[in-house]
Amino acid sequence: PNIWQRICIRISRFGRPCPLLFTEGYMSLTRCLRSTRRNTIILTELKCITSTNVIPFSKKETSIMADSVAQYINRHFNQKITLDELAKVFFCSKSALMHTFKKAYGTSVLNYLMDRRLQEVKMWLKISNMPINLIAQENGFSSLPYFYKYFAANDGMTPLEYRNQAQEKIK
Fold first, then answer.
1. What is the pTM assigned to this prediction?
2. Which of 4, 13, 121, 146 has its CA 20 to 30 A from that of 79?
């Protein structure tokens, strides 16, 4: 059984899944939780399964999902994040995730992730004297050649030139 089926079985009083949960999604889950005495245990298990409080299934919840994805990326940008992983975390398909996010933010999930990483790298280049390769690795760039290429394409200069320019402005 998939994760939803396991959650349904846990919620059900007789070991059978709640039929509403499969059709109505998150809102049905909250109704099922109100009707059971074990809701604290189930909520704890749900919190372990996912880092978001919203599991979207209706059109109303799609913008909430996009915001939740953005929050997840903002918290985990320095780790390896794949579309497959995000789809599992948010209980949806990759295509639904990409479409919803693009509609809400006007950019793809991966571009948002790379821009977030780049934003953090720029901050570190301004305030520290850490080696550039270490800053890149600490912020989720696993390939240094790709990092230098991506940085130059977005800012028109190398990370070292950016650091020198930023430190001159501070002086």
1. 0.64
2. 4
